[in-house]
């Protein structure tokens, strides 16, 4: 019962307040730790072989430190006061979730598109994607936003809740450390190919099951919202594995099928054009309202999943006596 209440409270807390900038966020501390460790490793390891070996050490130190530090903090606070320990765990799990932040980021782009301010919409999109946005027109701005909302359902909501269910705040925080590492060093470029390979692989493994659960949840939510759930399921089976990421294609293809749009295509990163496999069929031109629909799918799927997690936690508690 305790874990079920904590999970529900953490999710509700995130939905209400998100990540206020006035409150220190654990991910900021993780980012500083990654930067410091990267500098130390690069000073000590100058050869590609040794750097690649050190790449294994980096996620072990960061994720292990996040798990151990969180567990120690909760133990200390619970000894001071059980209620304080509960409250701290609720807050810590809430910091690993970003349902409100993801919705707000999408809506920031939507608002500018509805006002007709393409320049401001490009800037808003540029805050949440790595691709160049300076030359994008409205359909591609919508595409980038929908792709971001869909992809991040996994690592911003479903995965952290899954790990919180399995191991409370310490494991959820360890997952967030892995995800932070991937976003900082998990690139397949000359700078990070050796140092970041293990972090990228670990992130793929951590999100593997959650990505596939998310696709199923999105198909269900498409049915509940009277969208094209049959097409959503068909597109997942047809296109999900075409994505260069082993996980991102599942939520993106599910959303694309539900909305009757085609995601993927040409993107530009630092002046270099790349092509990402198409997800879905171009049944119509993408419109700003697709951002609203993608956000609804995200919020419904996250709400259903946290309820399932709470039910699972209560079931386990009952079985355990």
Brief summary:
The chain has 11 helices and 2 strands.
Query: What is the percent of helical residues?
Result: over 70%
Number of DSSP E strands: 2
Shape: globular
Q: Give me the side-by-side strand order of the main sheet.
A: 1-2
Largest sheet: 2 strands, antiparallel
> How many helical stretches?
11
Topology:
Layout: H1 2-17, H2 26-44, H3 48-80, H4 82-96, H5 99-115, H6 118-126, H7 138-185, H8 197-224, H9 229-239, H10 249-259, E1 263-269, E2 272-279, H11 289-319
Antiparallel strand pairs: 1-2
Helix pairs in contact: 1-4, 1-11, 2-3, 2-7, 3-4, 3-7, 3-8, 4-7, 5-6, 5-7, 5-11, 6-7, 7-8, 7-10, 7-11, 8-9, 8-10, 8-11, 9-10
Written account of the structure:
The structure is a single chain. With 321 residues, the chain is mainly α. It has one domain (2-319). It is built from eleven helices and two strands, in the order H-H-H-H-H-H-H-H-H-H-E-E-H. The protein has helices at 2-17, 26-44, 48-80, 82-96, 99-115, 118-126, 138-185, 197-224, 229-239, 249-259, 289-319, and strands spanning 263-269, 272-279. The chain has a two-stranded antiparallel ribbon. Strand 1 (263-269) and strand 2 (272-279) form a beta hairpin. The N and C termini lie close together (11 Å).
């Amino acid at each position: 019962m305790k874990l079920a209440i904590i999970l529900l409270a953490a999710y509700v807390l995130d939905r209400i307040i998100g990540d206020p900038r006035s409150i220190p966020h654990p991910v900021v501390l993780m980012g500083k730790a990654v930067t410091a460790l990267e500098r130390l490793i690069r000073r000590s390891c100058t050869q590609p072989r040794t750097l690649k070996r050190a790449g294994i050490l980096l996620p072990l130190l960061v994720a292990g430190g996040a798990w151990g530090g969180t567990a120690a903090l909760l133990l200390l606070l619970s000894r001071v006061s059980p209620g304080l320990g509960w409250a701290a765990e609720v807050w810590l799990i809430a910091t690993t979730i970003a349902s409100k932040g993801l919705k707000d980021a999408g809506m920031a782009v939507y608002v500018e598109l509805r006002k007709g301010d393409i320049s401001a919409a490009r800037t808003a999109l540029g805050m949440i994607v790595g691709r160049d946005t300076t030359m994008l027109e409205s359909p591609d701005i919508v595409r980038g936003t929908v792709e971001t909302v869909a992809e991040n359902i996994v690592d911003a909501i479903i995965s952290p809740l899954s790990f919180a269910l399995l191991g409370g705040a310490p494991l959820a925080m360890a997952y967030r450390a892995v995800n932070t590492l991937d976003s900082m060093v998990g690139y397949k470029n000359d700078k990070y190919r050796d140092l970041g390979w293990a972090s990228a692989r670990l992130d793929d493994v951590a999100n593997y099951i959650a990505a596939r659960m998310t696709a199923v949840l999105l198909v269900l939510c498409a049915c509940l919202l009277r969208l094209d759930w049959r097409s959503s399921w068909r597109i997942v089976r047809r296109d999900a594995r075409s994505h260069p990421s082993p996980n991102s294609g599942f939520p993106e293809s599910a959303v694309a099928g539900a909305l009757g749009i085609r995601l993927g295509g040409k993107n530009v990163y630092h002046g270099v054009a790349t092509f990402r496999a198409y997800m879905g069929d171009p049944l119509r031109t993408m419109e700003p309202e697709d951002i609203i629909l993608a956000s609804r799918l995200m919020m419904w799927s996250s709400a259903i999943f946290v309820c399932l997690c709470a039910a699972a936690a209560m079931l386990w508690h009952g079985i355990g006596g």
